Amino acid sequence: MEIDATDRRILTSLQKDGRMTNAELSEQVNLSPSACHRRVQRLEAAGVIRGYVALLDERKMSRPTTVFVEITLSGQADEVLDAFERQVARIPDLLECHLMAGTADYLLKILARDTEDFARIHRQYLSRLPGVAQMHTSFALRTVFRTTAIPV
User: Fold this and answer.
1) Residue 17 near residue 52 (C-beta atoms within 8 A)
2) What is the pLDDT of residues 89-110, one digit of tens each?
3) Do residues 69 and 129 both lie within one domain?
4) What positions does the domain HTH asnC-type occupy (predicted)?
5) What is the pTM of this model?
6) 69 and 135 share a domain?
7) What is the structure's pLDDT at 82?
8) Is residue 87 part of a domain?
9) Same domain, 72 and 125
């Protein structure tokens, strides 16, 4: 799918405020409401826009502690990777899991209430993950910058 400058303006605006009305969006991107609506529908149908979400405040949800966990597996065989990925996807406190190139095989991002809560997560879930050889945990002291917007 070809994404032109108008599509980019639409995507930029929707990433800032996915709840704006079509009338507001069409005004921001300088299109008629019907043309704007057709473009948004095309972007949705093509999967460029995957969905719309509400971004929650971690502190107000009592999850102020961001923890990064680097995991090195005992091997790289498909069975080891598949087993790990199936189990890690079941961790309810997990926000992200990335297969990495570098010193660790996987990088996890977890939200916890505090260090005691992370100890619970570690005990109930992380310590039971299959194929883990090493695990290194880092606690974020402060988030300096964060965005969900993809550069368009």
Assistant:
1) no
2) 999 999 999 999 999 999 999 9
3) yes
4) 3-64
5) 0.91
6) yes
7) 97
8) yes
9) yes
